[in-house]
Structure formats: C-alpha cells, structure tokens
Amino acid sequence: MSSSFGKNLKISVFGASHGTTIGAVVDGLPCGFTIDETALLRFMKRRAPGQSLVTTQRKEADQPHFLAGLVNGQLSGSPLSFYIENTNQHSKDYNNLRDVPRPSHADYTARVRYGDAVDMRGGGHFSGRLTAPLCCAGGIALQILKARGIEIAAHLRQIGAVKDKSISFTEPAMADLQKAGFETVAMVSPQERLRAITYIDELRQTGNSTGGIIEVFATGLPAGLGNPNFDGIENRLTTALFGIPGVKGVAFGSGFEGCLSTGAEQNDPFLLENGTVRTLNNNSGGIQGGITNGMPLVLQVGMKPTASIAAVQPSFSYEQQKNVELQIKGRHDPCIAVRAVPVVEAVTALVLLDFLLDHNIQFN
Amino acid sequence: MSSSFGKNLKISVFGASHGTTIGAVVDGLPCGFTIDETALLRFMKRRAPGQSLVTTQRKEADQPHFLAGLVNGQLSGSPLSFYIENTNQHSKDYNNLRDVPRPSHADYTARVRYGDAVDMRGGGHFSGRLTAPLCCAGGIALQILKARGIEIAAHLRQIGAVKDKSISFTEPAMADLQKAGFETVAMVSPQERLRAITYIDELRQTGNSTGGIIEVFATGLPAGLGNPNFDGIENRLTTALFGIPGVKGVAFGSGFEGCLSTGAEQNDPFLLENGTVRTLNNNSGGIQGGITNGMPLVLQVGMKPTASIAAVQPSFSYEQQKNVELQIKGRHDPCIAVRAVPVVEAVTALVLLDFLLDHNIQFN
Amino acid sequence: MSSSFGKNLKISVFGASHGTTIGAVVDGLPCGFTIDETALLRFMKRRAPGQSLVTTQRKEADQPHFLAGLVNGQLSGSPLSFYIENTNQHSKDYNNLRDVPRPSHADYTARVRYGDAVDMRGGGHFSGRLTAPLCCAGGIALQILKARGIEIAAHLRQIGAVKDKSISFTEPAMADLQKAGFETVAMVSPQERLRAITYIDELRQTGNSTGGIIEVFATGLPAGLGNPNFDGIENRLTTALFGIPGVKGVAFGSGFEGCLSTGAEQNDPFLLENGTVRTLNNNSGGIQGGITNGMPLVLQVGMKPTASIAAVQPSFSYEQQKNVELQIKGRHDPCIAVRAVPVVEAVTALVLLDFLLDHNIQFN
Amino acid sequence: MSSSFGKNLKISVFGASHGTTIGAVVDGLPCGFTIDETALLRFMKRRAPGQSLVTTQRKEADQPHFLAGLVNGQLSGSPLSFYIENTNQHSKDYNNLRDVPRPSHADYTARVRYGDAVDMRGGGHFSGRLTAPLCCAGGIALQILKARGIEIAAHLRQIGAVKDKSISFTEPAMADLQKAGFETVAMVSPQERLRAITYIDELRQTGNSTGGIIEVFATGLPAGLGNPNFDGIENRLTTALFGIPGVKGVAFGSGFEGCLSTGAEQNDPFLLENGTVRTLNNNSGGIQGGITNGMPLVLQVGMKPTASIAAVQPSFSYEQQKNVELQIKGRHDPCIAVRAVPVVEAVTALVLLDFLLDHNIQFN
Asked: Helices D131-146 and D37-45, interaxial angle, to 10°?
C-alpha cells in the first residue's frame, strides 16, 4: 500500500480496523526531547471513540505502547515505534460485507487493486481507525512545536447549515480554539455547538450522517518555511491530509470563496511594523509561493458524510453476480468530522515539523 | 527550489519569467509513442498569452524546441527535454519591485527563503509563465492517454457570480467541454460565457481582477488505479496541482458542498450492469480510498484572483525600511483562471499517466 | 535517522541494541501470499547469535511477533509489522562507553550528529542487531521470489587468506550454496570451511577479529528488470546493502579484479540458444546498463573486521577532555561476516522483489 | 528511465550519444554563488574526448549553453539548466548495431526493457557521453565546496598491473592529486603514469581495452554529515556513482583489502589534539555509521574495461534470429577509467554538497 509520508520526518502507519493492533514508526523526531505522556494521552483522547452520543459506540482506550525510540521518556534519536491495541472490534458485524461492497467505501476499489485476499473487515487498513497512530505521532509533534512557540488549533467551521463563529485570520483566538477542542463538538460558539450536536443527533436517530468543514490555524511559524512549485507548504500538507480517510477537499486562506472574489478584496497588503513585516489581511492563509510569510497558517479541510448509514442501499454480490440490497450493521460515527479535528491538527503538526527540519532548526 | 514531481513519470521544470528560456525534462514517457506536434501546439496555444481582451497582452509564441528524447517525432525512451524562448518580457516594468514586494505575490517570501540574489523579475521561477512547459509535457500525456481511451477535459465552473451550466458527474459531456476549451473563456454555456467575458473585462477596466473555479473530468480510467493513505489519486494530484501558481484549493467529486450534505444524499450506491460495476451517483468523483472506481474522475481547482492589480497598494521598501505605496505596472491577466484551464488538464494528465505507469500498462 | 528504503516495497526498521525491542514495517508485500513461518524461523536462525564459537555469546531467540499485516498466516495487503524482543542485552558492559567512544564504531559520529542524548548503548540504532528485522522481512521476500522460480544464495568467498571454492558465474551451484548456508561458516568447501573456523577461533582467542567477503548469486531473474543511470539494479542494491553495519564495499560480477583485466577477457559474448539469449561468460554479473540480462546476478559484499576487539585501544574521554585508553567489554563476534551471509541474502531479496514490483508482476 | 538523483540537490540528466544535445537540470544550488566559468571549462576539458592517444578520437568541445538559473554568472536560485551540443557523432558506424547487440553493452537489456523503438545509437542515453553534463554540474559543486574549504581530488590508483604511488589516507597530498588530474593519465607518479600510458596504447593497438581503479579523496568535510542505515554517505554516494556507465564496484577506506585484514590492524583509534578529534589511521575512509568523522573521505571506484573492442565477437541477429559475428566500428576509449577521473570527482562533489544542504549550511 502506501502508508508513509514525510521528507525529514517519516511517518509509516500500520494496522487494520479489525486486526490485533495499529501503530506507526516515526523517524526523524529530534533527539533528546522529553515527551509529556499525560498531555499526549489527553490529546489522543479527543479522537478516541465511544465518548458521546455524536460519536461511534465502539470503545477503545487508544493507549500507545512504545516499542522503541524512547529512553526514560526522552526521544533517543532512533525511530519512535509504538502500537495501540484493538480491543473492541466486532468483526461479525462485517460478515456480509466481504461479499457485498458498501457504497462510498473502499471495499470495491481495494478488491480491484489488491485481490480478494485483502482484509477489509471494518475498512481494514483504509479505516479511520488508522488515524489513532497519526494522533499519537502528531501529538508529539505538537509538543515539540509548542516548545518553539508554534501553536496549532482547529475547529469545526461548519456542520450542515450550522456555522461556528468566524475566527480572525490575522489574530486567531488560539486559546478559544484550544478550549473548544475538548468539547463534544469543537465549535467555539456554545450556541452553535449545541445546534450542531442536536443536528448530528437527529441524523443519527434517522440512520443518516453528515460531514463538515474543519478549519486549522497555526501561529508562531517563522517566515521562509517551504518551497515553490511542487514541494511547498500546500503540496506537502495536502499529501498528508488526503491520507485521512474521508477528506474530500483542502483549501488555504480564504479558500474557494476567495477565488470567487476580486483581487482588490483578496490581496494582503504589507505593513512594516517595528521592523517586522506583516500583512493587513491574511486571505493568503500565511503562504505565498509555497512559503510561509510569518502570518498565521490557515486552511480548511472538507470531511465527507460518514458513508456507513443505517438505511438500506443498493449494491451487488460478488458471489451471486447480481444486484442486492445492503443493510450495514456495526457502530458508526454519525459525523466523522467531529473526531477528525485532532487528527487534522496532528497531521498539520507533523508536516510543519517536517518543514522546520528542512531548515535544520534545532529542538533541544 | 523544488521544481520536480512524479514517481514513474518525473517532470522537472526550469526557467524564470524574465530569463532567456523556460522548459522541462520529462523522464518516463513511454518509448515509441509518436507525438502529434500540430495537436500539441494547438493545445499549448490555449494557454498562450496575448490572445484576447481577458488575458495579458504579453505575447509569446510558446513554441517548444526539443533538445532530446525525440527521434523523428517518436519518443526514444530517454528523457524528453525542451525549452521555450521568452521573447516578450518587459523587465523594466519590474525595476521598482526589487525593492518593494508586491502584495499576495512571492516576492517577499522568496527573498526570506533564498536571499536577495534570488531573481524575482516578473515572478521569476514562481511565475505562471512556468505553466507553459507543464502544458507541453501534459499535452503529450493527454495524447498518450487518449490513445488508450482516456479523455480529460475541464471548464470554468464559476467566475465571480457567473456559473457555467452544470456538467453531469456520471456522464460528463466531454465533447462539449473539449469544444469549450477553445473558446475565449472555457464555459460550455454560450450565455454564461458571454456574461463571464463581460464581467472580467469590467474588472480589467477598473484595474481589478478575479479568480475562478475550474472543474476537471477524466473518463475512461480503469478501476484500481491508486493507493490508500498517502499515495492515492488525491495525494499525487494535489501535490502536482498546488504547483500551479495561484491554486488555493482542490476538492474531489461533490467537494466542500458535499461535505455539508448528508450520507443519504451523498453515497454512491453500486449497480452491476452487464457484468460491469458502476455507481448510481458519482459524488465520490470516481475515487474511493484513494483508488479509482471506474467512474469519471471529477475535481475542482480554485484559482485566486490575479494578485497584480492596477490599484495603488500598501507595501514597504527594503532599502528605506519604511512603508510605501506601490503601483504595479506591466501587463497582467485580469483572471488567471481563464488561461489555467489547459494547465489543470495538463497536470491532471501527467499525474494520471504516472498512475498508469505504476501498473506498468504498456502504451505501444 | 534514515531507517527506511525501497520504492514499491518500503522497509522501515526500528529499535536499538539495548532497547526493549527491534522490528520493522514492510509495506508493499503482495497481498494473499501465505508465509511459511517454520521456514522463516529456520532462515532467521542462520543470523541469530550465540550458536557457535565463532559468533558472539549473546543469545537471542529472534522470534518475530507480528503486529499487523498477517491474517491466518496470509499477507493481508496492509503493511506487515513485527517486533523482536531484546532479552539478553548486558547494558552495564557499555557503561564506560558513554564517555569514551569506541574506535571504528559510530559512537563519536552519532554524538556529533544527534547530540549527547542519542542512545548508543551496544551501538544503539547503528548496531548489527538491527539486521534481525531485515532477515525477517527478507526471509519473507525470499519465499515470495522462490515461488516465482527466483533463488538467492550466498557464501563466504574469502575470510583472511582462506578462499572458498570458486563458484561458477554462469551456472552457480545453488543447492551447494544453500546447504553451506546452514554450516557454522557458509563455505561450500568443507576443507576451507574448517580452515576458516580455525582462523577465526585463533583470532577470537587473541582478542582480535577479521572481516570477509560475501558473494551472492540470484538465479531465475527475468531479463529487463532495472533502469539505467541512477535507479538500476546496482544503485538500489547498494543503497540497501550499505545499510548493513560493517559493509565497506560492493562490487558486481568480476568486480574490482575484472576492472584490472582487459575487455577481451571480460566481455560476455551473446549466444542465442533455442530462442533464448544468454552470454558465454558472466563477468557483468547479470547486469548491463543497470538492467538484468537474464544471467545469474552476481555480487560481492566486503564486511570489515569487527571493530570491538579485546585489545586496549587509544581513545578520548568527553568528560575529562583528554586521551585515555579504552578496554571494550561485552560479547562480540570475532567475524561479523559469518552471520552477515543471510542478511546479505535477505537484503538482496528485498531489493529484487522491489524491482519485480516495478513491473507489476503478480504474485498470487 | 531514471535519470535523476539527489535529495536537496536534484540532478536530472538528458540526452543521448547520437542525439542533438545532452544536458541537465540542477535544482537546489545555493542562490547567489558566482560561477567561475573559465575554471568550469578547464575542469570539463579533463573529461572531454579527443585529447590524447589513450582516449577516443571523437572530438567534442563540451561547451555548456546555459538556458536558465544564471543571471550575470550568478546562480539565481531557480534550477540551473544547460545543454551541450553533440557535434561529432558518427551514427553510421552504428548501423549494424541496431540488429546485433554489442557484448557487455546495454543494447540487449535496453531493448528488452523499453522495446525496439529505444534509441541506442552509440549507447543512446546509456552512453558515457552523459557524463559530460555530470561534469558541468559537479564542476560547479566543486567550486561551491572549495569556497567552504572542502577539496576533492582523485587519481588512477591502478590500471592493469600498473599501480600509482600510494596516497596517505590521513593526509592526502591534495595538490599532487589535483596536478595529476591535468595529466594524460591521472597518476601522481610520473614513472607509473608513463607505464600506464604505454600499457593502454599497446592494448589500443591490438584492439583490446582495459579498466582501472579510481581513488577519490575529499578533505575539509565537517564531522557529522550523513545518516545511519539507508541514507548515509556510502548509500547516497553509491547511488550516484553507479550512475556512471562502467562502474562495477565502490569501496570505502581500506576497501575490500581491509575486509581481509584484522580488527587490530584496521581500527582507527581516536586522538584528541588541541580540542579536535581525529583518528590515527583512516581505514574507515572518514565515515563511521554512515556519518563523516572529520577525517578525509576516501573511496575507490572500479571501472570496467571498455566493452567496445575491435576484435570480432560472438553475438546474434534479432532479424535473422541466429548467432552471428560482430565487428564493432567507431572510435572508442581504450580505457574509460582515464576520462572517468573528473566524472567521479564531479559526482562525489554533487553528493557531498547534497549532504551539506541537509544541514542547511549557507553558502553565500
């Protein structure tokens, strides 16, 4: 498959939804940094399933077991390796799926690509469960970045028709965002949050699902990270972000809306302030020509509605070679975007750390 | 810099807006394929500047000169290399820009990254002019794909408030799209096309600019191309597409809009028809789990409004270390999205050919 | 660090000599292949320490624990991940080495590169112990290749002045080589084998060590694998082989000796025999222009003498900032080349399988 | 094909022996460095053909024409691109070779790999002529390294039975080596040089050829460049060096000979001298664990005898499908190792500069 990314910081994930374990190898983390394991678990818990009505009822502790790369809590220079146990898979819910592919899942394409021996129970290696190791790796990256004054935080900009309070692109309220990250739904506005929960729960009760748009902010980045053309901030970030199951789109700064506006409205004029260069607006999302300009990095990630819905859907049977109706069992998130917020933060952190390592910035 | 992309088919671009030449090396094109040079020039002309009121008045013939890799019009197996002359650059229009960076351009970030020796006249290596070699390379890829029954065509889905006629995701009208590609503005609907031209020309006259959303379709792709996680269709396509200057977002299938909809509406149920698997809808845009499912590939690319506008804008002077007002001279596209349509087709073709080469599909 | 290699088949190793575990993730193995675990353990045992007088007395069972990628003994398509426990490390033997770097070890260079937090007990991540996961991954690759008629076998061509019986380059005695692989010292000639054991044991008793030259043969390869220039058989093989600690040189076919000979003696004339092309000699070692020609692949790998010797050696103390004498304790192989034979076979198998995957050759 | 290498400094070569031009794109050279074109041409002339009896009589000026990346002799940050014209190819000498593959050339393997449309006149893209662009790119890298105190020089350690004076591994006589580089045969000892010339000329007259062993030294490298495992100094150097046609082996420090010696003789004890760490010997060739230790880098490269010899050789005809005798016409080097000396220096320089860029060392 193609389960690794990164240039200086290489992340290689393994595991399957209904296998024994999932995990990752992370090569290139700065030697000597001491991990705060409590903070790491707290971060990973934001993604863990089984915590509210608006997420799947599959319960997993998501406790990483470190195999290598840590000596007394300190990164030892060699690749960090860890696994997380799968304890709560219900494989028998997936018995009928081996023969009948689920609509808008990878069951069919995986089988065309890898043959019928491919393990697709619960989505197999294509499952959102694989984002747990990304959160572990990225949770560590977030700590390393934070120690250098770089903060990353995301919120649910929109779910269905429910829009969170809009966040300033030039001075994003990072503390508010970080606080919202620990709420049931990561919205800054309590009113909108409640509306979103209600909306998701209604869909859940009718066996339906929704998607959402996650917006990410990174502050404290130095100007000059990145490259033009094919290895810029956008290129490496999208390569990694599209590795999160369910991502359908990625846009930077004012995104697609900005593309329908005019240059006079969208341009970011420069301002020299006490010897520091900043811009008046930040519709560029902190990037020009693939390179950071020192303003906050801003991006949006579109997550599709959960494909596993309770309604009966048309599909076909490989064995019978005829069209059949499919009823999906199992426990599913009514809105995968909810739990994807820390995943998007984690992946953003891994990519930004990779760019800092391009510049050989020391971390200890 | 970072001017190459591709796994089996490696494209390496060179040149600068105001240098002598631009060009590329393309390594991995199938040996023995005979290029139709007339068709290639016709394709490249769609991108070339100076052809209408809604594009820049810089006139360039964009004639590729092949240095290697072609023997009697046939690809010889070794890397294809070519250059295109820059004949119509007006470098003196850029004299004041060396000291005063243009808002929403890469002048500032390039200088932070590479030092003040970096050649940024006319955007330097960051310029949209570098998309001419991409069109030459991609124009050849389009011919190779076409010979295998794969067609790629794009249109301007929207410019400002002007929306083109919507195109079916399951059976896109490829002939209409291809015909629209040779119009002044690549819209299928003549009415909307006229409205778009009028809108762009109005902006041009007031020294303003606009962006746009390009939508791309690829038909005839086999199911089973691509990979999960970090090297799927979306990952490799976005890596390449964000190499086009001005791209702010990329989304697949029903894109960001689909993310705000529900699973019941968005899912693509399967249908077995005469032994062939297809889907009823195509909100997935032809991809599930990073792998093609045999339905048309559909994606949207957001292009930002041209940053070079005639209005006076705030910036600063490196030399004087103070804020100054900047008036940009030179000739600029009022809407770079217009000429970007063939570029997006070209880049899509290069990436899809790269995926076909993953599977060692023979071409002659 | 930089603990991964491979294009289609990506191997990422982790662990340290005195950590809890070592292991690897292997991404790209063909889905559906059933592993023979007994044969795998038998192969891995050839590398395992503690089995004779001519190897280290550190005893390790080298039992892989599979974390992911196997379902009922069958490769499931997703990355194979496994770990091996370190049970017999004696870290206290290394207490003085933190301050005093061992000559011809990586203690000093690792500390310059990664800072003083780098874990170098027993060689850390630079240790030959990391070749155990390579043997596990490569042992599986050997089985997959064998199922397609490709055999790989190596012997100790020379240790000190003791030369094994020379092996034909055009028709290597694969069965003899494979049998020799299970001997104490992998030489085909019983007489030379005994001489080699005696020589190594004498060195061991005097606290000295030796190196050796390993010669590898691969038969059954199709013609046409590989590429010219920078991604040919030699390039990818050497990238991987120099990842084995202690390798000082790699040469193909008649190697350095052939370079001192003449074209008339070294050329490999072609012969068409029953429609099949072969060569009369095989001084090219089965490769021309980076591409296999269908003849046996032949290469030599030079392994340096074990750097850990019992004699007192000059070094320096970081703390005292002065020259000191160092006496290395611990248990060491008197000739690492002895146990490196299966490692070299394993790495060769991984790289050749990677090349077969370039050509999308199916395995099940 | 696979005509590029490098991580931070990416070199992509193009062209064929009997095409119009050869050339390269070099992406990642430090912005702002001013090239000494006179010194560059002097360096490239060392490789150019037609200069003595011991080299081919094909005469080529090897003048690079820069297409992009240079502004007034200064590197502008964007990829450097250049071509060199082929003016003196005699393609008709190769007419019979299309049907009858030359022994120990890539004619046969290229055709198996790429089909019969592949252009192999004069060796096509596999030809030693492709080393001219490597010398241009590497000649610039040598200048950049020199400006930072890093010198690279190589000599012909041995041709046939003729051995050059041995060079100290701890304090190589760089000035002598550099002077020898401009001699007909790059040997330091005038006596041995004469013997080598006589030997090569005798072979030439009898229609035979020879190979040779080139030894390279690099001084002034900081300790701490490189990585363990699969991306160390040896791995990246061999990947690039095996891209030179005719290379059969690469070894570091005391090489294969050292592997047959003992640890007591081969180890490099440390010595702290005025606060600087050095080693007493340098059998490690300046590398431990893939990382430089600050001592001179030493390596040997084995070049095979020229495969094009005048004697009649057995081969076969594709058309007639039978064995035939082949007489090779054309002008050939009796010893390709002679002209390969600057090529090996150039490639070593490119790789070392790539490693320096890993560490973001600034050059201007």
From this structure: 130
